[in-house]
Task: inverse folding
C-alpha cells in the first residue's frame, strides 16, 4: 500500500504505508538507539498510527499519543494505544503532565517548523515537562542530498528568507487529502540553535550516516 | 519505480512503471490474444515506451509508433523502435499509410474519448487504412468495479451528460506533470456503438474476466 506526498511546488513522491507500521527491528539504527533514552511518562508528538507509542507501551511507559489527524488517532486506539488524542502537540494542557519525555520520531522534529515557532514550542514543552525532562526525536538533514528538485526547493526557500529545509506538503490517498503541513528538515547545527533558543541543549546525537539522524535533548541549565 | 495518476476530481492512484515495460508474457491474456491479429504495417497509437511496438517489430511487422509525449518517443527510440514520432494518432498523414493495423493497447481505446470524437477518429483511421484494415486494442470496462470513488465519478459524469467512463487525468512524477488527458473507459456495448458510428464492426472479443478486455475491429461492409 502506498500514498502520495505532494509538496506545495508540485513535486510528488510515493511513500510506502508499511514503514509507518514498522516494528522496531525495521527502524533506522538512529531511532532504535534514541528510543532507549525514553523515561517515565511520554508525550508522543505526531504519533501517526502508533509506531513509537506502541513500542514504548510495550516497554512499560505511560504514553499519551497526540496527532492532528482523527484517522491516525482512531488507528492508534484500534491498535492498542491506551491514551490517544486528536490535537496538536502545541496545545498541551498542564493537567496531562508533567512529562518526562517528549518523542518526535520519523521527521517529527520537523514540527518545530522554523526558528521562531520552534523556540516557542520548545519553551512550551519545557513548561509541560519535569525539571529533568528530555526530548528524543529524529529528523532528516536536508543538506545530505544532491537531488536537483530538492536543491531547487531549498533555493526557493532561501530567496524567500526561509530555512532551506522548510517544507509545505500534504498527503493524498485516493480521494483523501490531508491539510497542508509546515515542516522543517534541519541539519544538526540548525536544530542545535533552535533548541538553544527554546531552552534545551543537545545531549546526544545518533547518526548512522543515513538521511535522518536522531537526537536526545535535555533541559538547559 | 512508481508514478502518480491524478484525476481531475482530486483522486490519485500510484502506478508501477514496470508494467509499461512488461514483456508479452506479463501482459493480460486478452492482450496476448489480440496482438496475434496484427497484420502488415501497424500504427501503434499512444505507444508509450514501446511495449507493443517492440513486440510487433520482433514479430516482423513494420511499425510506426506515435505518442504525444516527447519523453515517451525518446524512450521508444532508445529501446529500438525504428519509427517513432511525437504526434497525436488523429494527426495521421496519408503518406504514412495505408496501415493494415491500428493498435490501441493498455486502455488506449480510451483515446476515442466520447461518442462524437470516437466516431470522427475511427472514420479518419478508416481512411488511412487499407480496405481490409483492422483495429486491435484493449480498454477497461468502467462498470466492472464497485469502488465508491469510481462510482461517484461515474455519477458526476452522468449529471454532466457524459459517458460514465469519461475520465480526465494527468500523470505526475517528482516535479514532472503531463498535460491533462481525456480518456473514456467503456463497456463492450458502448465501444460497439462508437465503432459502428465510425464505420467499423467488432469481429472478436478477448475477455479474460479481468477489468480490461480486448477487441479486434474490422472495416464495416
Result:
Amino acid at each position: 500500500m502506498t500514498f502520495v506526498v505532494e509538496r506545495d511546488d508540485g513535486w510528488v513522491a510515493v511513500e510506502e504505508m508499511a514503514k509507518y507500521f514498522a516494528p522496531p527491528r525495521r527502524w533506522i539504527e538512529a531511532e532504535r538507539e534514541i528510543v532507549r533514552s525514553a523515561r517515565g511518562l511520554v508525550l508522543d508528538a505526531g504519533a501517526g498510527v502508533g509506531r513509537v507509542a506502541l513500542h514504548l507501551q510495550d516497554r512499560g511507559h505511560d504514553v499519551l499519543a497526540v496527532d492532528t489527524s482523527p484517522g491516525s488517532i482512531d488507528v492508534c486506539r484500534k491498535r492498542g494505544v491506551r491514551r490517544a488524542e486528536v490535537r496538536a502537540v502545541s496545545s498541551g494542557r498542564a493537567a496531562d503532565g508533567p512529562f518526562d519525555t517528549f518523542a518526535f520520531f520519523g521527521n517529527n522534529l520537523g514540527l518545530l517548523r522554523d526558528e521562531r515557532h520552534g523556540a516557542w514550542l520548545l519553551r512550551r514543552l519545557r513548561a509541560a515537562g519535569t525539571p529533568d525532562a528530555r526530548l528524543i526525536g529524529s529528523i532528516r538533514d536536508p543538506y545530505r542530498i544532491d537531488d536537483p528538485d530538492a536543491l531547487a526547493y531549498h533555493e526557493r526557500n532561501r530567496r524567500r528568507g526561509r530555512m532551506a529545509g522548510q517544507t509545505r506538503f500534504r498527503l493524498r490517498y485516493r480521494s483523501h487529502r490531508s491539510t497542508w503541513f509546515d515542516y522543517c528538515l534541519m541539519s544538526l547545527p540548525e536544530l542545535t540553535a533552535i533548541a538553544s533558543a527554546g531552552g534545551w541543549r543537545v545531549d546526544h546525537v545518533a547518526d548512522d550516516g543515513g538521511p535522518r539522524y536522531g537526537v536526545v535533548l535535555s533541559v538547559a541549565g
Summary: The mean pLDDT of chain A is 95. Chain A touches chain B through 16 residues (CB under 8 Å). Residues 115-128 of chain A form the longest helix (14 residues). Chain A is about 25% helix and 30% strand.
